[in-house]
DNA sequence: AAATCCACTCGCACACTGTACGAGGACTGT
DNA sequence: ACAGTCCTCGTACAGTGTGCGAGTGGATTT
């Protein structure tokens, strides 16, 4: 027996927008605003309805449920990602620009941290980016499954690096915590590990934003070098 | 003016367990069971209370709130991670074993996907692992901030690679979806991208579990090679 | 022995969530 | 005028985390 068909917004026909006022696009746009302003918990159907001067349940005409709405908003952000044509700029440059672009978009929409890697990325924008990434690593010289492995490694690095950065921003920058007080407390937690203590002490003299950016470049260079090395042998 | 002090379970004194019956440890253990069995949404204070034959709000004597409970459960899983002494086995071997161990633990506790990179990892177990990782990359030859960059790159890769794997398992393995039906639908979503279609077609002939493992090793090798390359120049 | 204290339990209540349902309104084509 | 379709939304339900305050039982102090 076959199981239930996998269901995603992208696998169904959208409702044709007959009414000029309300539309799926407008709802998604409003949802994005709410998400950017108040984060993932700030988006509730009631609030979204109010923002659109509509009843909460009216939205269910355009969107099957909240998850579907998130899928739509999710794909929308993929649209903002720049993926240069690798044929023009070379694969390393293309990969590098892509990586930085993904990071920037993630930092601009911190709520993505809760969706990335959880939702299937089947929307047209995500597909476009994924396709371009494949082209990039094909041009680099990968073939067969190794194209996938390379893309997976590359994106894994970007996600894994940016995710904690978002979390950090959420508690420290937007949050209401005092940096000095926090460091003092973290040092208490690390009391048993002299090396970690020394490490934390170093933090005092550096701008964490800059550090993050430098770390990202360092890691990106490493990952691309490591991938390139798979090609020569 | 100073902001609010950052608050985490680890930065407070735990309540001494005077009562023999209920204790913080027992609550965390029960929470872990619930999380493993029913996932992150399966854990509610009421359900957890019922499991322990207690009222939901009784737990608040031992734990300040749900987030704190999650912090405790979170750290518990770090305890299961194997980090070999790099002095004994060499840094590459130590890193490799660590990476695989983290992946295994994550796959065994899929709910971690919702916490990793979101919660600060300040618990004793997480600290132990972090410290060992630093030793590993110090032994490799990194110094100063580069130790951090290397560790961050390394862990970013592991998280970023395993996170989507967990999501995939959740929908396909534990989920109720039919693989063939899903592939057919995904192909529809990728209709505009001939290269992606070709790629999806390849999937038919491979065991995805094996593919994931191979991909992980491929990427790990790349990352470690890339990091090693930072040392020689 | 009596009184006080404190560790602990928990029922109730509040504000909030997603969304199923079904009654209605508005507009179209016949 | 009637039928049908598109669209709105009030109400309701089952759930969530958790603040509050009353209550209980055992140990400590007077």
Automatic annotation (TrEMBL), chains A, B:
Pfam families: TetR_C_1, TetR_N. GO terms for molecular function: DNA-binding transcription factor activity; transcription cis-regulatory region binding. One of its GO terms (biological process) is negative regulation of DNA-templated transcription. InterPro entries: DNA-bd_HTH_TetR-type_CS (IPR023772), Homeodomain-like_sf (IPR009057), HTH-type_TetR-like_transc_reg (IPR050109), HTH_TetR (IPR001647), Repressor_TetR_C (IPR004111), Tet_transcr_reg_TetR (IPR003012), Tet_transcr_reg_TetR-rel_C_sf (IPR036271). Residues 44-63 bind DNA. It comes from the Bacteria. Signal peptide: none annotated. Residues 21-81 form the HTH tetR-type domain. Keywords: DNA-binding, Repressor, Transcription, Transcription regulation. This is TetR family transcriptional regulator. It comes from Nonomuraea fuscirosea.
């Amino acid at each position: 027996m076959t199981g239930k068909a996998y269901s995603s917004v992208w696998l169904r026909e959208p409702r044709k927008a007959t009414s000029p006022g309300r539309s799926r696009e407008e709802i998604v746009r409003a949802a994005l605003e709410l998400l950017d302003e108040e984060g993932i918990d700030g988006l509730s159907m009631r609030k979204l309805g109010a923002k659109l001067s509509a009843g909460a349940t009216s939205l269910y005409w355009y969107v099957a449920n909240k998850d579907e709405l998130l899928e739509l908003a999710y794909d929308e952000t993929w649209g903002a990602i720049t993926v240069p044509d690798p044929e023009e700029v070379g694969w390393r440059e293309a990969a590098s620009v892509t990586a930085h672009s993904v990071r920037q978009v993630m930092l601009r929409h911190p709520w993505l941290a809760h969706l990335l890697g959880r939702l299937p990325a089947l929307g047209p924008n995500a597909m476009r980016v994924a396709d371009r990434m494949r082209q990039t690593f094909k041009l680099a010289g990968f073939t067969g499954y190794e194209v996938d492995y390379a893309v997976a490694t590359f994106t894994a690095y970007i996600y894994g690096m940016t995710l904690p950065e978002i979390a950090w921003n959420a508690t420290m920058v937007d949050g209401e915590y005092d940096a000095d007080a926090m460091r003092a407390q973290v040092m208490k937690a690390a009391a048993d590990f002299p090396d970690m203590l020394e490490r934390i002490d170093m933090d005092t003299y550096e701008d964490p934003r800059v550090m993050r950016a430098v770390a990202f470049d360092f890691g990106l260079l490493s990952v691309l070098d490591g991938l390139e090395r798979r090609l020569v042998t």
